[in-house]
């Protein structure tokens, strides 16, 4: 990743972002429950939810993420490369404590909606030019593989433009536009909340999930560090050009 050398402030830490958003009643209904990593919280969260994600508080590209499932035999912990089983919470906690390299958080898992059998989530880009208003400059889908714990492009996921996604989901144009309108509205609410907490913000990549059964919209993550634009170019050139026109206005030269 290139060193960031352009004019857009960043909020560091997923937990900090979560707490900022959870304090806003318009956005809080879209948040999966999230808390800091500790033995007490791990026990409480596994008792409350059958499936969790354990993530670095600071990180990107889907690196260092674990998926944790609770069943009758104990706990199943999956990472990008391996799966381990634990029979009790103590051994599970000790293992995570030993392998963690950064501060972790625990997040309620959202059962991702599927397209043609594959899980997907959505990335909304929100940007503003200097002295300009926040604008949702594009939304794109990230379709994962059935055996992966994340949909990330850098871990084998593929990008799909929204019109193609809606066709594959067999949604009518009206249904597709209704979903897009909610995503854009929520993305802009998030941008306004966070930019009041940190001045100088110009861009955010916001990851959304549609829950498989209820179709409820959830916010998985907000990335203001240096969201990647380049992969969009081959999938939706119009979106890429629009995103980069905003980016150049605040000094970003590369996607």
Automatic annotation (TrEMBL):
InterPro entries noted in UniProt? YheC/D
* Pfam families, per the entry: ATPgrasp_YheCD (PF14398)
Q: Which organism is it from?
A: Paenibacillus residui
Which protein are we looking at? YheC/YheD family protein
């Amino acid at each position: 990743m290139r060193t960031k050398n352009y004019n857009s402030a960043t909020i560091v830490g997923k937990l900090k972002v979560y707490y900022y958003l959870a304090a806003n009643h318009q956005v809080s209904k879209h948040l999966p429950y999230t808390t800091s990593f500790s033995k007490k919280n791990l026990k409480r969260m596994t008792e409350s939810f059958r499936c969790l994600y354990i993530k670095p508080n600071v990180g990107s590209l889907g690196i260092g993420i674990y998926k944790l499932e609770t069943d009758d035999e104990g706990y199943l912990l999956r990472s990008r490369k391996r799966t381990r089983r634990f029979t009790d919470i103590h051994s599970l906690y000790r293992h995570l404590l030993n392998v963690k390299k950064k501060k972790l958080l625990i997040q309620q898992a959202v059962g991702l909606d599927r397209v043609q059998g594959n899980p997907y989530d959505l990335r909304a880009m929100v940007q503003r030019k200097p002295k300009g208003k926040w604008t949702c400059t594009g939304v794109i889908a990230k379709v994962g593989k059935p055996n992966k714990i994340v949909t990330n492009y850098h871990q084998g996921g593929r990008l799909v433009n929204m019109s193609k996604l809606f066709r594959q989901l067999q949604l009518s144009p009206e249904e597709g536009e209704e979903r897009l309108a909610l995503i854009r509205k929520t993305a802009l609410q998030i941008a306004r909340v966070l930019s009041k907490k940190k001045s100088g913000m110009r861009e955010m990549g916001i990851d959304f999930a549609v829950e498989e059964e209820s179709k409820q919209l959830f916010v998985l993550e907000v990335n203001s560090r240096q969201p990647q634009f380049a992969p969009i170019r081959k999938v939706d050139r119009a979106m890429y050009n629009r995103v980069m026109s905003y980016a150049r206005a605040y000094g970003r030269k590369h996607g």
